[in-house]
Amino acid sequence: MYLLFHLHKKDTVIVYHSLAYLKQLSFLKRIKKFRLILEIEEIYSDVKGGIQKKKKELKFFQLADAYLFPTALLNGLVNVKNKPYVIIHGTYNIEKDYGEKFNDGRIHCVYAGTFDPRKGGVAAAVAAQFLNEKYHVHIIGFGSKQDEKLLINQIDEISRNTKCKITFDGLKSGEEYIRFIQKCDIGLSTQNPDAAFNDTSFPSKILSYMANGLRVVSVRIPVVEQSAVGQYIYYYDEQKPEKIAEAIMKVDLNDDYDSRKTIKILDKEFKDNIRNL
Protein backbone atom coordinates (compact mmCIF):
# COMPACT_ATOMS: atom_id res chain seq x y z
CA MET A 1 0.00 0.00 0.00
CA TYR A 2 2.86 2.36 0.77
CA LEU A 3 4.46 1.75 -2.62
CA LEU A 4 1.12 2.08 -4.41
CA PHE A 5 0.68 5.64 -3.14
CA HIS A 6 4.30 6.81 -3.18
CA LEU A 7 5.93 5.32 -6.28
CA HIS A 8 6.33 7.36 -9.48
CA LYS A 9 7.24 6.38 -13.02
CA LYS A 10 10.75 7.86 -12.79
CA ASP A 11 11.58 5.99 -9.58
CA THR A 12 14.02 3.10 -9.45
CA VAL A 13 13.27 0.32 -6.97
CA ILE A 14 15.84 -2.35 -6.05
CA VAL A 15 14.14 -5.53 -4.87
CA TYR A 16 15.64 -8.61 -3.24
CA HIS A 17 13.85 -11.50 -4.93
CA SER A 18 11.39 -13.50 -2.83
CA LEU A 19 8.57 -15.86 -3.69
CA ALA A 20 6.51 -14.18 -0.96
CA TYR A 21 5.60 -11.09 -2.98
CA LEU A 22 5.56 -12.08 -6.64
CA LYS A 23 1.90 -11.12 -7.10
CA GLN A 24 2.15 -7.80 -5.24
CA LEU A 25 5.28 -6.72 -7.09
CA SER A 26 3.90 -7.78 -10.47
CA PHE A 27 0.77 -5.71 -9.80
CA LEU A 28 2.75 -2.65 -8.70
CA LYS A 29 5.09 -2.81 -11.68
CA ARG A 30 2.21 -2.90 -14.16
CA ILE A 31 0.28 -0.10 -12.45
CA LYS A 32 3.08 2.32 -11.48
CA LYS A 33 5.57 1.66 -14.35
CA PHE A 34 8.64 2.28 -12.14
CA ARG A 35 12.13 1.00 -13.04
CA LEU A 36 12.75 -2.34 -11.33
CA ILE A 37 16.22 -3.67 -10.53
CA LEU A 38 15.84 -7.22 -9.28
CA GLU A 39 18.49 -8.88 -7.13
CA ILE A 40 18.29 -12.63 -7.77
CA GLU A 41 20.54 -14.80 -5.61
CA GLU A 42 19.06 -18.12 -6.70
CA ILE A 43 16.04 -19.72 -8.32
CA TYR A 44 14.12 -20.81 -5.23
CA SER A 45 11.94 -23.31 -7.10
CA ASP A 46 15.13 -25.29 -7.84
CA VAL A 47 15.36 -26.01 -4.13
CA LYS A 48 11.70 -26.23 -3.20
CA GLY A 49 8.94 -26.40 -5.77
CA GLY A 50 7.80 -28.02 -8.97
CA ILE A 51 7.64 -27.23 -12.67
CA GLN A 52 4.66 -24.87 -12.38
CA LYS A 53 6.26 -22.89 -9.56
CA LYS A 54 9.45 -22.54 -11.59
CA LYS A 55 7.52 -21.30 -14.64
CA LYS A 56 5.87 -18.59 -12.51
CA GLU A 57 9.20 -17.60 -11.00
CA LEU A 58 10.97 -17.36 -14.37
CA LYS A 59 8.06 -15.38 -15.83
CA PHE A 60 8.24 -12.93 -12.92
CA PHE A 61 11.94 -12.32 -13.59
CA GLN A 62 11.09 -10.85 -17.00
CA LEU A 63 9.33 -7.87 -15.34
CA ALA A 64 12.69 -6.46 -14.28
CA ASP A 65 14.45 -3.68 -16.19
CA ALA A 66 17.88 -4.64 -14.82
CA TYR A 67 19.42 -7.27 -12.56
CA LEU A 68 21.93 -8.02 -9.83
CA PHE A 69 23.25 -11.60 -10.03
CA PRO A 70 25.77 -13.60 -7.97
CA THR A 71 26.97 -15.57 -11.02
CA ALA A 72 27.24 -15.18 -14.79
CA LEU A 73 25.55 -18.56 -15.15
CA LEU A 74 22.42 -17.23 -13.46
CA ASN A 75 22.46 -14.22 -15.76
CA GLY A 76 22.62 -16.56 -18.76
CA LEU A 77 19.65 -18.52 -17.48
CA VAL A 78 17.40 -15.63 -16.43
CA ASN A 79 18.37 -12.64 -18.55
CA VAL A 80 17.07 -13.97 -21.88
CA LYS A 81 16.46 -10.44 -23.27
CA ASN A 82 20.00 -9.28 -22.42
CA LYS A 83 18.94 -6.44 -20.13
CA PRO A 84 21.53 -4.45 -18.10
CA TYR A 85 23.02 -6.41 -15.18
CA VAL A 86 25.84 -6.47 -12.65
CA ILE A 87 27.55 -9.52 -11.13
CA ILE A 88 28.37 -9.47 -7.41
CA HIS A 89 29.43 -12.79 -5.88
CA GLY A 90 28.69 -11.73 -2.30
CA THR A 91 30.09 -9.40 0.33
CA TYR A 92 33.34 -7.68 -0.65
CA ASN A 93 34.02 -6.42 2.86
CA ILE A 94 37.67 -6.87 3.86
CA GLU A 95 37.96 -8.01 7.47
CA LYS A 96 40.48 -6.51 9.86
CA ASP A 97 43.61 -8.65 10.12
CA TYR A 98 44.09 -9.61 13.78
CA GLY A 99 47.43 -11.31 13.04
CA GLU A 100 46.67 -14.32 15.23
CA LYS A 101 47.55 -17.95 14.36
CA PHE A 102 47.42 -21.24 16.24
CA ASN A 103 51.23 -21.61 15.87
CA ASP A 104 51.31 -25.28 16.84
CA GLY A 105 53.13 -26.47 13.73
CA ARG A 106 49.97 -27.84 12.08
CA ILE A 107 48.16 -26.66 8.97
CA HIS A 108 44.68 -25.64 10.10
CA CYS A 109 41.68 -26.19 7.83
CA VAL A 110 38.19 -24.94 8.64
CA TYR A 111 34.72 -25.77 7.40
CA ALA A 112 32.34 -22.96 8.42
CA GLY A 113 28.67 -23.32 7.61
CA THR A 114 25.59 -25.46 7.96
CA PHE A 115 25.74 -29.09 9.08
CA ASP A 116 23.02 -30.01 6.57
CA PRO A 117 24.47 -33.13 4.86
CA ARG A 118 23.75 -31.57 1.44
CA LYS A 119 26.05 -28.61 2.20
CA GLY A 120 29.31 -30.47 2.88
CA GLY A 121 30.11 -30.31 6.60
CA VAL A 122 30.16 -34.08 6.84
CA ALA A 123 32.32 -34.36 3.70
CA ALA A 124 34.89 -31.99 5.23
CA ALA A 125 34.96 -34.03 8.43
CA VAL A 126 35.35 -37.39 6.68
CA ALA A 127 38.21 -36.01 4.55
CA ALA A 128 40.28 -35.71 7.74
CA GLN A 129 40.86 -39.46 7.81
CA PHE A 130 42.97 -39.11 4.66
CA LEU A 131 45.20 -36.36 6.09
CA ASN A 132 48.33 -36.87 8.18
CA GLU A 133 49.48 -35.49 11.50
CA LYS A 134 50.47 -32.15 9.91
CA TYR A 135 46.82 -31.15 9.65
CA HIS A 136 44.02 -30.05 11.97
CA VAL A 137 40.46 -29.86 10.60
CA HIS A 138 37.99 -27.60 12.43
CA ILE A 139 34.23 -27.86 11.93
CA ILE A 140 32.25 -24.79 13.00
CA GLY A 141 28.71 -23.68 12.22
CA PHE A 142 25.09 -24.52 12.81
CA GLY A 143 22.37 -27.06 12.09
CA SER A 144 19.51 -29.02 13.60
CA LYS A 145 20.18 -30.90 16.83
CA GLN A 146 19.97 -34.16 14.89
CA ASP A 147 22.47 -33.02 12.23
CA GLU A 148 24.83 -31.71 14.91
CA LYS A 149 24.66 -34.96 16.88
CA LEU A 150 25.36 -37.04 13.76
CA LEU A 151 28.31 -34.84 12.89
CA ILE A 152 29.83 -34.99 16.38
CA ASN A 153 29.48 -38.78 16.44
CA GLN A 154 31.20 -39.00 13.08
CA ILE A 155 34.03 -36.73 14.25
CA ASP A 156 34.53 -38.90 17.36
CA GLU A 157 34.71 -42.03 15.22
CA ILE A 158 37.13 -40.51 12.71
CA SER A 159 39.36 -39.15 15.50
CA ARG A 160 40.02 -42.68 16.70
CA ASN A 161 41.31 -43.76 13.30
CA THR A 162 43.39 -40.87 11.95
CA LYS A 163 46.60 -39.03 12.75
CA CYS A 164 45.02 -35.78 11.60
CA LYS A 165 43.42 -33.84 14.43
CA ILE A 166 39.73 -33.05 13.92
CA THR A 167 37.55 -31.00 16.27
CA PHE A 168 34.00 -29.72 16.45
CA ASP A 169 34.37 -26.12 17.61
CA GLY A 170 30.72 -25.10 17.82
CA LEU A 171 28.99 -22.01 16.50
CA LYS A 172 31.03 -18.83 16.06
CA SER A 173 29.61 -15.46 15.08
CA GLY A 174 30.69 -11.84 14.78
CA GLU A 175 34.22 -10.99 15.88
CA GLU A 176 34.67 -14.44 17.44
CA TYR A 177 34.06 -16.03 14.03
CA ILE A 178 36.46 -13.61 12.30
CA ARG A 179 39.25 -14.19 14.82
CA PHE A 180 38.79 -17.96 14.70
CA ILE A 181 38.93 -18.47 10.93
CA GLN A 182 41.86 -16.03 10.62
CA LYS A 183 43.83 -18.39 12.83
CA CYS A 184 43.33 -21.05 10.14
CA ASP A 185 45.15 -21.46 6.83
CA ILE A 186 42.64 -23.15 4.50
CA GLY A 187 38.88 -22.70 4.15
CA LEU A 188 36.79 -25.65 2.92
CA SER A 189 33.82 -25.24 0.58
CA THR A 190 32.68 -28.84 0.22
CA GLN A 191 29.00 -28.84 -0.68
CA ASN A 192 27.45 -31.57 -2.80
CA PRO A 193 28.06 -30.65 -6.48
CA ASP A 194 24.88 -32.47 -7.56
CA ALA A 195 22.54 -30.17 -5.60
CA ALA A 196 20.38 -28.07 -7.95
CA PHE A 197 21.21 -24.76 -6.25
CA ASN A 198 24.89 -25.19 -7.16
CA ASP A 199 24.05 -24.48 -10.80
CA THR A 200 23.31 -20.83 -10.10
CA SER A 201 24.12 -19.73 -6.52
CA PHE A 202 27.64 -18.73 -5.45
CA PRO A 203 28.93 -20.26 -2.16
CA SER A 204 29.15 -17.24 0.14
CA LYS A 205 31.67 -18.92 2.43
CA ILE A 206 34.34 -18.66 -0.30
CA LEU A 207 34.32 -14.87 -0.11
CA SER A 208 34.19 -14.99 3.68
CA TYR A 209 37.35 -17.13 3.71
CA MET A 210 39.11 -14.87 1.19
CA ALA A 211 38.12 -11.68 3.05
CA ASN A 212 40.00 -13.14 6.02
CA GLY A 213 43.13 -14.14 4.08
CA LEU A 214 42.56 -17.91 3.78
CA ARG A 215 43.33 -20.15 0.81
CA VAL A 216 40.23 -21.98 -0.38
CA VAL A 217 39.56 -25.59 -1.36
CA SER A 218 36.31 -26.09 -3.28
CA VAL A 219 34.48 -28.69 -5.29
CA ARG A 220 34.86 -27.86 -8.97
CA ILE A 221 31.53 -26.42 -10.10
CA PRO A 222 31.00 -23.91 -12.95
CA VAL A 223 29.68 -21.08 -10.74
CA VAL A 224 32.98 -21.07 -8.84
CA GLU A 225 35.41 -21.96 -11.61
CA GLN A 226 33.97 -19.31 -13.98
CA SER A 227 33.73 -16.62 -11.29
CA ALA A 228 36.04 -13.64 -10.78
CA VAL A 229 37.88 -15.57 -8.02
CA GLY A 230 37.94 -18.92 -9.82
CA GLN A 231 41.65 -18.80 -10.63
CA TYR A 232 42.58 -18.49 -6.95
CA ILE A 233 40.79 -21.66 -5.77
CA TYR A 234 42.19 -25.17 -5.24
CA TYR A 235 39.72 -27.68 -6.70
CA TYR A 236 38.77 -31.31 -6.31
CA ASP A 237 36.62 -33.03 -8.95
CA GLU A 238 34.81 -35.82 -7.13
CA GLN A 239 32.76 -35.62 -3.95
CA LYS A 240 34.95 -38.20 -2.23
CA PRO A 241 36.80 -37.62 1.07
CA GLU A 242 40.13 -38.77 -0.38
CA LYS A 243 39.80 -36.28 -3.27
CA ILE A 244 39.07 -33.44 -0.84
CA ALA A 245 42.15 -34.45 1.17
CA GLU A 246 44.30 -34.52 -1.98
CA ALA A 247 43.25 -30.96 -2.84
CA ILE A 248 44.02 -29.81 0.71
CA MET A 249 47.51 -31.30 0.53
CA LYS A 250 48.20 -29.47 -2.78
CA VAL A 251 47.66 -26.04 -1.23
CA ASP A 252 50.84 -23.96 -1.36
CA LEU A 253 51.11 -21.83 1.77
CA ASN A 254 54.36 -20.18 0.62
CA ASP A 255 53.21 -18.42 -2.55
CA ASP A 256 52.43 -14.70 -2.92
CA TYR A 257 48.67 -15.23 -2.45
CA ASP A 258 46.83 -12.09 -1.30
CA SER A 259 43.08 -12.71 -1.23
CA ARG A 260 42.31 -9.40 0.48
CA LYS A 261 43.82 -7.52 -2.47
CA THR A 262 41.66 -9.56 -4.86
CA ILE A 263 38.48 -8.76 -2.91
CA LYS A 264 39.40 -5.07 -2.82
CA ILE A 265 39.68 -5.01 -6.63
CA LEU A 266 36.29 -6.73 -6.99
CA ASP A 267 34.75 -4.18 -4.64
CA LYS A 268 35.98 -1.24 -6.74
CA GLU A 269 34.78 -2.86 -9.97
CA PHE A 270 31.33 -3.51 -8.51
CA LYS A 271 30.95 0.07 -7.30
CA ASP A 272 31.78 1.36 -10.78
CA ASN A 273 29.33 -1.08 -12.38
CA ILE A 274 26.45 -0.36 -10.00
CA ARG A 275 26.81 3.39 -10.63
CA ASN A 276 26.49 2.73 -14.38
CA LEU A 277 23.46 0.51 -13.81
The CATH homologous superfamily of the largest domain is termed Glycogen Phosphorylase B
User: How many extended strands?
Assistant: 10
The biggest beta sheet reads: 6 strands, parallel
- The sequence of SSEs as H and E is HEHEHHEHEEHEHEHEHEHEHH
Low-confidence spans: none
Per CATH, what is the topology of the largest domain? Rossmann fold
The helix/strand class is: alpha/beta
| Number of domains as seen in the coordinates | 2
**Structural shape:** elongated
The percent range for strand residues is 15-25%
Task: Describe, in plain words, how this protein is organized in 3D.
- This protein folds into 2 domains: 2-87, no CATH class; 107-262, Glycogen Phosphorylase B (Rossmann fold, 3-Layer(aba) Sandwich), CATH 3.40.50.2000.
- The longest helix is centred in the last third of the chain and has 18 residues, at 259-276.
- With 277 residues, the chain is of the alpha/beta class.
- The chain is elongated, with a radius of gyration of 21 Å.
- It is 39% helix and 18% strand.
- The model has no long low-confidence stretch (mean pLDDT 91).
- It has 12 helices and 10 strands.
- Strands 7-6-5-8-9-10 form a 6-stranded parallel sheet, sandwiched between helices. Strands 1-2-3-4 form a 4-stranded parallel sheet, with helices on both faces.
- Strand 1 (12-16), helix 2 (22-32) and strand 2 form a beta-alpha-beta unit.
- 33% of the residues are buried.
- Helix 6 (121-127) runs parallel beside helix 7 (145-159) and helix 6 (121-127) crosses helix 11.
